[in-house]
Amino acid sequence: MKINLVLSLREKIKNILRFFKRQAIFAIQSLPISSKYFGPPKETYPSSEEYFNICKKNNFNDIFYIPFLPSHTYTRNCPRSIYKKHHWKFDNMYVHVDPKTFVISASNCRLVGSIGTIITHDDKLLSDVSQQFSGGEHFIFNYLKLPTCQQVNGTVAVLATAGGETYFHWLTEVIPRVEILRKALSNKIENIDLFIVNPADKLPIIIESLSLLGIPLNKLIFADIDTHIQPERFIIPSLPGSTGNPPAWALKFLRESFLNHKSEIEPISKLYISRAKASYRNFINEDEVFEYMSAIGFTTIYLEEHNFKTQIALLSNAEVIVAPHGAGLTNLIWCNPGTKVLEIFSPNYVNVCFWTIADSLGLEYFYMIGNSESSVDSSSQMCQDNIYVPIEELILSLAMLNNESD
Hints:
Mean pLDDT: 91
Order of helices and strands: HEHEEHEEEEEEHEHEEHEHEHEEHEHH
Helix content: 25-40%
Strand content: 15-25%
Oligomer: single chain
Radius of gyration: 23 Å
């Protein structure tokens, strides 16, 4: 009882402090002082195109906007499974619209934090190139004071974005921004002095993949939570698409850029990608799954043990892939059309991003949903939920995969 009262009191105090902080921020925003020195930005531009148009209308000429590709609508094929009715997450994604893409460049803009948040010359958030995953108001508006701003010489291109320090988001949302820059700037990206990217300490592929694209280490700025910079000029490519929906052109670019760099290894036709060495979203009955997959000719691999080039080789050589939902399936990008894929989900967390890749590349995609032995109370717990795999349903799913692919 006393513990509950203490927790309740703490929550009330936190709410009171949040209220007064919010009031202080509102007061600061009304002052004629830039967030470069104190407080958060004043307002928001919903789109870069709107910012460009307002700048031109107000005779601010040190800005340009170059369209890359228009928006595009397409319809995906149904996934396959042993169930009579598909999970509702798939139902919501059959028709998808890729947003239009572009490059915008201007002087006197600033970048804050590790995920590429852009503040314009007139102290407003440029929201369509300042992605964040949490809902609600952008985190930048919670600052009473931003980190000290550093001036940077030259022209800086922005690649960093939310999630860019993880394998999936780096490959599908950051690297394609290089292609947008190349095409929009007529392959003149060598004139860019520096590129700002996500922290690379936990993801070596950041440095390796950019090097393969001709962007050397000495041209990189690694953003972190204390980053606040103002270069002479920013060049900012749009995101290639919405999160979890890499467009077909981006997948084509990735394949053309990296498939030729794959390692030379002995091909393995049937892969079971295990997450047994991951800290979450494991198979609860991993030993049982491992034993069954081995018995029917699958080779178990742990992708975290392999470098980027070997991961490309493993997936590009495979004919059948079975895996729990996880970042390793980003490597479906390297698969040949017709490759068979069975993805296994927790009932508490179904994310269809790898179906979108498989469908775009002409892979034969199947899924099954395991069981959970835990109750979850938040979205973060749902994302990390471990999975119990009913072997009988795994057998049926693989039988369907084989029968429909003969």
